[in-house]
Write a structure and sequence with these properties.
140 residues, alpha+beta, Alpha-Beta Plaits, 4-stranded antiparallel beta sheet, 7 helices, binds inosine-5'-diphosphate, cytoplasm, metal ion binding, nucleotide metabolism
Amino acid sequence: MALERTFSIIKPDATKRNLTGKIIAKFEEAGLRIVASKRIHMTREQAEGFYAVHKERPFFGELVDFMISEPVVVQVLEGEDAIAKNREVMGATNPADAAEGTIRKEFALSIGENSVHGSDAPETAAEEIKYFFSDDEIVG
Ligand code: IDP
């Protein structure tokens, strides 16, 4: 199987509780390689643009407020089947439904403050990577 890249965000609830390293360890243990990484404080415009697909959802305002409440760590993860592998390591959106050993089971606080974002398909992965990274920031 070919190498694939996916986009990840370590969300404000996790950076605030100093869980960045523990979450990165989960990615690496799953065979995902971090080929780009930066800590940023998203602007409201950036967060609204990133989550534009959810703008009609009732939780959109709450989600944007949360995503700009603290810094986040945006990353590109590379590996075989990286998109599915990352979704598996993340666990279900709602930590109450997440499997044992997943990031959201161990660390997430709620369905909204759920510690990580990960792309859900090749098209969104490509778009999301481009939204935050230029080609020269990704070192495979
Ligand atoms: P995903 O992050 O597992 O792909 P999505 O359904 O795409 O889940 O939702 C995007 C993000 O929106 C979630 O990770 C979570 O932070 C937030 N979210 C989803 N559902 C709710 C909700 O019911 N209340 C508050 N926030 C939510």
